[in-house]
Write a structure and sequence with these properties.
This protein has one domain. The strands form 2 sheets. The protein has a 5-stranded antiparallel β-sheet, with helices on one face. A 4-stranded mixed β-sheet has the order 1-8-9-7, covered by helices on one side. 34% of the residues lie in helices and 34% in strands. It is elongated. By secondary structure, the chain is α+β, with helices and mostly antiparallel strands. The protein is built from 1 helix and 9 strands.
Length: 174
């Protein structure tokens, strides 16, 4: 082999070895990146739910007709407003991050808020639920999915239908 040919073979081998090392580093770092990304998304979604919860509480404590707007950004997962059972829930089906103790329901604020992390194949399913037993939530929103633009939700106190009924809180997109 000539000296010129040996230089080219060496160069190609060095490039291939460098690419293989870069690929190995990326493969080993990717799960950590996914885990940290999901952790940040979960924390952000919890803050969004807390903001919605504060708005619902504020509107329910003020007079009939009171209405506030809350901006909701969903990066991953889905937001569910259940008018039948009177709860708001955020669900992430395929998290790389285990947020809490698996298969244990963590109850906060006297049962108003619950957090669950369930095994979902090789991923985790994270669920935040905010219950409103003393209110009747009224909403026709389908589960809100991830979107580029934030959702602008209006939360309105519609009052009571009778003195012994719960207050009706309407949540709709504005």
């Amino acid at each position: 082999m000539t000296r010129k040919g040996a230089i080219w073979v060496s160069t190609v081998l060095y490039i291939l070895i460098s690419l293989a090392i870069i690929a190995l580093v990326l493969v080993s770092v990717q799960p950590v990146i996914n885990k940290n990304t999901d952790k940040a998304i979960i924390e952000q979604s919890k803050q969004v739910l807390d903001s919605l919860d504060e708005t619902i509480d504020k509107v329910s404590n003020l007079g009939e007709g009171t209405q506030f707007e809350v901006e909701i950004t969903i990066k991953k997962g889905q937001l569910i407003i259940d008018s039948e059972e009177n709860f708001v829930s955020w669900l992430l089906e395929d998290s790389s991050y285990m947020y809490s103790e698996p298969n244990q329901e963590i109850v906060l604020e006297g049962g108003k808020k619950t957090i669950q992390t369930l095994k979902n194949n090789d991923k985790w399913k994270v669920i935040f639920t905010y219950k409103y037993p003393n209110l009747d939530l009224e909403s026709s929103l389908l589960p809100l999915k991830p979107a580029e633009n934030p959702y602008n939700l209006l939360v309105k106190n519609k009052g009571k239908t009778s003195p012994d009924e719960n207050k009706i809180i309407q949540i709709f997109e504005g």
